[in-house]
Amino acid sequence: MTTAPILEVRGLSARYGEVVALRDAELTMREGEFVAVLGPNGAGKSTLMRSIIGLANATGTVRFRGAALKRDPAAVAAAGIALVPEGRGIFGPMSVAENLQLGAYMIGGRGPDYERRLARVLHLFPRLKERLDQVAGSMSGGEQQMLAVGRALMADPKLILLDEPSLGLAPKVTAEILESLALLNREGLSVLLVEQKAPLALKLAGRAYVVSNGRISAEIDPKEITSHGDLARYYFA
Amino acid sequence: MLDPVFLAQTILNGLSVGCIYGLIGIGFCVIYNASGIVNFAQGAFVMMGGMITHVLMQQHLPLIPSALLAIIVVALAGVVIERIVVRPLWDRKATMFVMILATLAAQIVIERLTLMLVGDQPKSIAVFTDLPPIKLAGVAIGYQTLWIMGTSLVLIAALGLFFQKTLVGRAMRACAINREAAALQGIVVSRMLAMSFALSAALGAIAGILVTPTQFTAFNVGTPFAISGFIAAIVGGFGRPFGAFLGGLLLGLAQALAVFGLGSGLKNMAALSVLLIFLFLRPSGILGSAK
């Protein structure tokens, strides 16, 4: 069954000064989909994410559930989209509990709904439960990534965007985090995952876009990719 | 020969004025943390606090309502400066240098407006508790000194609770740590900026209200206070509110001891020496700078 579009990106372009980092990106995601964005380093994947969320200086349109999105990260968050940025963006000097509370800033960081969301995140990442009072910056990279994802989930988003969540992490930890996302996706959360490690992303995604030289160069079915050669064909097309 | 009572009195006076510098320094830190901006209009808030309280008391309003009204008016003035001076530049991603110049210009505009409205004569307000000083081992402890120190300590504790325990305080800290990540949580960073100006202006106003009975206020007292508060913030570790308070105490003490040992002409030299010593030996300040 085809579901309604949750995210529609049309003619999205972004530049950093004179450098055009993204050209006329077109992307559609449906409710409940797990979509991967692949591509070599510097291809424009992160710029695509930042442009969708309103962090990059971009032109073009982004619609979420049919409504145009404002180019303002706080408004985008309020609409129901969460971004786990590259580098995690956790509040290092603050405790894990404070980070999670700020994830639920829009509901005032308290109340029954907050407790329900917190319980769900701690169930998903039990390691965070043991470290609630710990300073977030003192945790391992994997735990920080779990916190970044957990904090994003505290907003109870309808769509979660992840930018290179595997960066600098051990494969086992990455697998643990991505497994959690796959579980949430099965429960109905839409996931847009930017990932350099294509095999990881392709294992989970139902569909993938390839970004190359600032353009979305291909849309692929992960089942068609059986070797590195298949992927390289798209990367360097 | 060294008179220990006079020395103790000097230290007490130094700590008292140091509390004022500390409060102004905290104001610098709160705005800097929320926005990365160094607001040199901070001194104007100090002047306005004392001046508005004076004007209201001249209209036969009692001290407490006058002071509360003054704090509210100055906090609103802080928001106005943020809206019409800082925000447009911030949105255009102006450089720090431009921001500093703009806030200095705002300070001058406020000074000149005050000059036009109330004239150039110094004004004062009565001490809050009109009783003879308490004598302790020969040291006279004025009630206004107790007001200054007590209020400062209460404010430090309240600010600590605000930043550590409330969601808004945590959101302001989040903006200080990573503005982009804060926005991704739905925190409206520009609103935090306006709140930081209101909070800093209110702190400046309280400092002005506290210090005016011991000195005086006039249209042009803002700049020296701003400089002292700025030095306090640097000495404490820029962006560290508690550090700024410690820096203020150190600065007040250094100035008082310089007056005690070397004469009043060297008061400013002592302040700048403290700044230079820290810039050379520990540029990150007592607690280490926040960014």
Q: Can you tell me about this structure?
A:
The complex is a heterodimer of chains A (237) and B (291). Chain A is α/β, with parallel strands linked by helices. Chain A folds into 2 domains: 5-80 and 157-235, Rossmann fold; 95-156, no CATH class. Chain A is built from 9 helices and 10 strands. Chain A has helices at 45-53, 73-79, 96-103, 112-124, 126-130, 141-153, 171-186, 198-204, 228-235; strands at residues 5-16, 19-30, 34-38, 58-64, 67-68, 81-84, 159-163, 190-194, 207-212, 215-220. In chain A, helix 3 packs parallel to helix 6 (141-153). Chain A is globular and about 45 Å long. The two termini of chain A are 32 Å apart. Chain B has helices spanning 4-35, 42-58, 63-91, 96-118, 143-165, 167-177, 179-184, 189-211, 222-236, 241-262, 267-281; strands at 134-136, 139-141. The relative contact order of chain B is 0.21. Helix content of chain B is 74%, strand content 2%. In chain B, helix 1 (4-35) crosses helix 9. Chain A binds chain B through residues 53, 55, 72-74, 77-78, 82-83, 85, 89-94, 98, 101-103, 105-106, 108-110, 151-152, 155, and chain B through 167, 170-171, 173-174, 177-178, 180-189.
General shape of chain A: globular
Termini separation of chain A comes to 32 Å
Question: What's the CATH C level of the largest domain in chain A?
Answer: Alpha Beta
Number of strands of chain A: 10
The CATH class assignment of chain B is Mainly Alpha
Average pLDDT level of chain A:
90
Number of domains of chain A: 2
List keywords for this structure.
heterodimer, A: 237 residues, alpha/beta, Rossmann fold, 2 domains, 6-stranded mixed beta sheet, 36% helix, globular, B: 291 residues, mainly alpha, ABC transporter involved in vitamin B12 uptake, BtuC, two-stranded antiparallel sheet, 2 strands, 2% strand
Give the topology, please.
The complex is a heterodimer of chains A (237) and B (291).
Chain A: E1 5-16, E2 19-30, E3 34-38, H1 45-53, E4 58-64, E5 67-68, H2 73-79, E6 81-84, H3 96-103, H4 112-124, H5 126-130, H6 141-153, E7 159-163, H7 171-186, E8 190-194, H8 198-204, E9 207-212, E10 215-220, H9 228-235
Parallel strand pairs in A: 3-8, 3-9, 6-7, 7-8
Antiparallel strand pairs in A: 1-2, 1-4, 4-5, 9-10
Helix pairs in contact in A: 3-6
Chain B: H1 4-35, H2 42-58, H3 63-91, H4 96-118, E1 134-136, E2 139-141, H5 143-165, H6 167-177, H7 179-184, H8 189-211, H9 222-236, H10 241-262, H11 267-281
